[in-house]
Design brief:
Layout lengths: L4 E2 L9 E3 L23 H4 L5 H8 L4 E3 L2 H7 L7 E3 L1 H7 L4 E6 L10 H13 L4 E6 L3 H13 L2 E7 H6 L1 H9 L3 E5 L5 H9 L7 H13 L4 E3 L6 H7 L1 H13 L5 E5 L4 H15 L5 E7 L4 H4 L1 E6 L8 E6 L21 H8 L4 E5 L1 H15 L5 H20 L4 E6 L7 H8 L10 H9 L5
Parallel strand pairs: 5-15, 6-7, 6-9, 7-8, 10-11, 10-15, 11-14
Antiparallel strand pairs: 1-4, 2-3, 4-5, 12-13
Helix pairs in contact: 2-11, 3-5, 4-16, 5-6, 6-8, 9-10, 11-13, 12-13, 16-17
Length: 450
Amino acid sequence: MEETKVVLTEKEMPKQWYNIMADMPNPPAPPLHPGTRQPVGPDDLSPIFPMSLIMQEVSTERWIDIPEEVMQVYSLWRPSPLYRARRLEKALGTPAKIYYKHEGLNPTGSHKPNTSVPQAYYNKQAGIKRIATETGAGQWGSAMSFAGAFFGLDVTVYMVKVSYNQKPYRRIAMETWGGKVFASPSENTNTGRAALAANPDNPGSLGLAISEAVEDAATHSDTNYALGSVLNHVCHHQTIIGLEAMEQFKKIGEYPDVIFAACGGGSNLAGVSFPFMRDKINGRDIRIVAVEPTSCPTLTKGEFRYDFGDTAQMTPLMMMYTLGHNFIPPGDHAGGLRYHADSPIICQLYKDGLIDAIAYPQTKIFDAAMTFARTEGIIPAPESSHAIKGAIDEALKAKEEGKEKTIFFNLSGHGIFDLAAYDEYNNGRMKDTVFDPEAMKVALAELPVI
């Protein structure tokens, strides 16, 4: 029988996270204080982050030790399997080999606990009682609520309103783990109240939800803020995915020619690709591709500018590809990818030509999701299906060219809580949302000139 999956033992789990800042040809430009426009220092971040995470954020050390307490929680689902998508290959008739890392096997169903668990641990060590955070589709809010339960932290989640209404089971999951969930914009914060006063039907955005969570954390002494993507330390934590994958590929004598991952804020792409990116920087021939929704095409349409990470301009300014912090994407089903910008690390690597980017409309994404579900048996999250679409197109290209290649993508989560979206697709009600370049132009005009 041909093997379907490559499995590591718990003893083979990586003991350190990888920090690509040690190997980047050009490090990202420094974040700037939102008020002074001067480079941010650790003291500027201390009101909302524990110092242990701040030091990871600014670190240029290549390896960061994973605490034993974090390893113990990781062991509930890690190491995750590396699968060979043999049935998908057969259905496509491709000579390519397709592999995927399955990050949907943990209790929350996505890759997000890889960083929520250490963030909860470090905050608990710092004496913090409560975490305020945001979530788009609900994966991050679920992960943070889950981690809070393990380390005895209260968790308040501001969930983008359009996703709050689309995905009630995500809200229920967060509440089951102890999280308190509010639709954003909410009446809880000055930011939310102002947004609702301007537009009572505001559908929300990740930038706006971040503003509410940061305001909440900054105005409560027992509360810190936690972010599920974008920041350096989040990207570091997620590299356990790619580090495991490298060991699994070694076991079978393979190495990917191309890697695909969905990209919203960037942690998913960072996690699966950065350990391989180190090889690319050192001369290895490998292509790494970020896959975006055409409704929120940050890398493929945005400008490389200093911008705020949130709508209310409370976060530091970061050099990113951005659509503008006031840009509100259409409310399609890839809620976790509806962010106006990307990780500064991802953006710098893209600018330097080390990462490629493509974008697809949601009906094409769900076409790929259906193919995957009916061959591999797994119903993927809409976000993860962006990577699946990229992998399928690459495999069909290999078929046309008659070339063998090894394709690898990150299945970052399952879609069991996204069945309402599948119902729309299956019954012909799903439409492609339209990106508005004029709205981007207006939002970009509001950026500070630095």
